[in-house]
Amino acid sequence: MLLNYLRYNHWANQKMCKYLSPIDHPADDPAKENLYSTIKKIILHIADGEQTWLSRLNGDNIPHMHNLDLEGSFSGICELILKNSSEFIDFIESKNDSFFTDTTEYINLKGKTFTQNNAEIILHCMNHSTFHRGQVINMLRNVGYTDQSASDFIMFLRERESLSV
Q1: pTM: predicted TM-score of the whole model, two decimal places
Q2: Tens-digit pLDDT string for the chain (165 aa)
Q3: Which run of H or E residues covers position 104?
Q4: At how many degrees (to 10) do helices 118-142 and 74-93 cross?
Q5: Contact 48, 81 (CB under 8 A)
Q6: Is the dihedral of CA 157, 160, 164, 165 positive or negative?
Q7: What letter does residue 25 receive in the DSSP assignment?
Q8: Cα dihedral angle (138, 139, 141, 144), rounded to 10 degrees?
């Protein structure tokens, strides 16, 4: 089930990036420019969150965010997001069942040490990405990008099922 959710996350990241990649040169509308800057911050936060949690699960106890480049293009940031979500899938595919009942100790951004179940960390990370993708889609709709197709988990399952028929 977790692997399926990771595949969903990658699929949803691909869908979001499909809409973001062509937007690299926003209109000369300052309101849109500010919005695009906010969207970049959010998608960098998605990329950074997935990268941080994957690093922690790999045993790299990083108590900080990666400070990713806000000046990068949407397509460049999307490359990073898709690389991260693909690497997360590869990482989980390489694990045996006991990994998901094991725990990982990590230091949060405030310097406090925590120990969490690995499966719960993965669910947290994927839910975090889903939440922020929803923010991005809502912002895009507010500036006229209304043709995004649904990226809900059930839509992923239906699409995957239709491809296997």
Answers
A1: 0.86
A2: 789 999 999 999 999 998 887 776 555 566 677 777 888 889 999 998 999 999 999 998 776 666 666 677 788 888 989 999 999 999 999 999 999 999 999 988 888 999 999 999 999 999 999 999 999 988 888 877 777 777 888 888 898 888 876
A3: strand 103-107
A4: 160
A5: no
A6: positive
A7: S
A8: 180
